[in-house]
Amino acid sequence: MKRMAAWIAAMASGAAAQTVPPKWNEPFPPHRVVGNVYYVGTSFLACFLITTREGNILVNSGLEQSVPLIRASIEKLGFRFEDTKILLESHAHIDHVAGHALVKKLTGAQVFAMAGDAEVIAAGGAGDFQYEQQWHWAPCRVDRILQDGETVTLGDTVLTAHLTPGHTRGCTAWSLNELENGKSLRVVIVGSARANPGYRLVDNSKYPQIAEDFKRTFRVLQSLDCDVFLGAHGWYYGMEAKFARIGRSAENPFIDPGGYREFVAVSERAFLQELSIQQGRVGVDSKKHSSE
């Protein structure tokens, strides 16, 4: 909860001076999550390496200054950073894609992103409905613009891109199958399901359909089968507590379908509460103006 509070405070400020809390970029032990999925992010910014026989896929690049930490984590696990063939994103905010240009430069990876986010990544933050004036990063060319339901394949690994808009226009949840002790498990990496502080859910001229997009997101997330719940921030899925349980029993602590369902339900309740507050505020303002 402390990490979430720090995140909310930073998002509310908009990182106005292009500064972020130091804790965002603190190292965290890299580790295997399930099958060929590994955690290689910082203590706060989740990045995942998915290894295949034809090279590797990296989901999220963090901040630009996160890239050396990500590289070190990948190499500590025994893989080569240069074998990164595809770079994906959860959503186009500075804390998840600012390192894209550097990763692409160092590895030659192809960058894939959902329509709605691809344009923001390519423009270095320009065009974002909420943070265009506050957040900027090195522009990164996007090699393939994805649509909802498209798949990304490398080797024998297939990821499906699920459009979950609202947090950003192209926010993406990724799903894939991984083997654990001969059993196929469904992995879901949630992009986000949260309306950040300052988001206008009603009468948003820059994003008129934001509320309906969030509602769509919850329908999509509720429809996905999930055994292994992951997300763009470790606190989404209780990463630190689960990491501490690794090796304590034969069970993989990251297998948590109940945690996924709870996260989606809690996020939806928070969204609906905020939407109701904003709708009530607009209703009061409308009555006030009509009586003047």
Question: Concise description?
Answer:
By secondary structure, this protein is α/β, with parallel strands linked by helices. Helices cover 32% and strands 21% of the residues. The strands form 2 sheets. The protein has a 7-stranded mixed β-sheet, with helices on one face. A 5-stranded mixed β-sheet has the order 8-9-10-11-12.
Write the layout of secondary structure elements.
Layout: H1 2-13, E1 31-34, E2 37-39, E3 48-52, E4 55-59, H2 67-76, E5 84-88, H3 94-97, H4 100-107, E6 110-114, H5 118-122, E7 144-146, E8 151-154, E9 157-163, E10 172-180, E11 183-190, H6 210-223, E12 228-231, H7 239-244, H8 257-291
Parallel strand pairs: 4-5, 5-6, 6-7, 11-12
Antiparallel strand pairs: 1-2, 2-3, 3-4, 8-9, 9-10, 10-11
Helix pairs in contact: 6-8
Question: What do you see in this structure?
Answer:
The structure is a single chain. This protein is of the alpha/beta class. The chain has a single domain, classed as Ribonuclease Z/Hydroxyacylglutathione hydrolase-like (Metallo-beta-lactamase, Chain A, 4-Layer Sandwich). It is built from eight helices and twelve strands. The protein has helices at 2-13, 67-76, 94-97, 100-107, 118-122, 210-223, 239-244, 257-291, and strands at 31-34, 37-39, 48-52, 55-59, 84-88, 110-114, 144-146, 151-154, 157-163, 172-180, 183-190, 228-231. The protein has a seven-stranded mixed beta sheet with strand order 1-2-3-4-5-6-7, with helices on one face. The protein has a five-stranded mixed beta sheet with strand order 8-9-10-11-12. β3 and β4 (55-59) form a beta hairpin. α6 runs antiparallel to α8. The longest helix is centred in the last third of the chain and has 35 residues, at 257-291.
